[in-house]
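As a warm-up, study this chain.
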Amino acid sequence: MQPNLRELTETKRQSPGRAVGASPMADGYGSDQRSWLRNMAVAAIVGVFLALVGAVGTDRVDVVTRLLFWVPVMLGGSVIGHFLTMLVARIPRVGASVWLVGAVLSVLVSIPVTLLVWGHAAWVLNTNVPVSNLPQLFTPVLIISAAMTALMIVVSQPGAVTHAPPPGAAPQPVRFMERLPPKLGGAVIYAVSAEDHYLRLHTSKGVDLILMRLSDAIVELEGVEGAQTHRSWWVARDAVENTRRDGDKMTLILRGGIEAPVSRPNVRPLREAGWF
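Now compare it with the structure written out below.
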């Protein structure tokens, strides 16, 4: 069990000693304003949840007080993480790896967030944690900051990409083609979309369903240039005919009138790759 403020103070009203410095990692390591606002909203929602459940000892105070503690701490951690992310991502060599950025960021974020938790708990929860106990408070803050940073990286990562053979190379058989039902034999694959435990195959000869996971299908689609545009869609690049924007939503228009969604983390990579 991670230590909390109840273990670090001897005051009447006790409180948790951990907070999250949620660090936005999407779209250029969090430099996109919409990604930042989205992560701020996530931080606020998590803060409300922690307050409602009375996380790590805060059930000893009323729900309004819990909200006044958790929500500002979560939002403050998100703001700190946003600005530190942009700095860390520009460090030579470190910025080349999103996971290395996340590791360095988790440590750096935890320093000011520890001070934020210490000061805010004293103000809102009437605690009195000695300065000498700040190193103990730093450990749970670091653990939660690292977990939330990793979560944001996973959520914000663009989808998997499949590749056509290099120019001049002998074409290799695409394993996924062996899974096509007989009625789709020899068809050109436009897209594959997930529906529960099944995959809907969108091809030049129509559609059909097969029982398979999308992640496994993408592995077997290597040899066809395409990308996972959404958590439930893989699209062949040659099938794209047009795009449509509806506010923040991007949709690819494929051959046969098929419409494939593009999630926000995939917009920039696809644009930079020349898909639209």
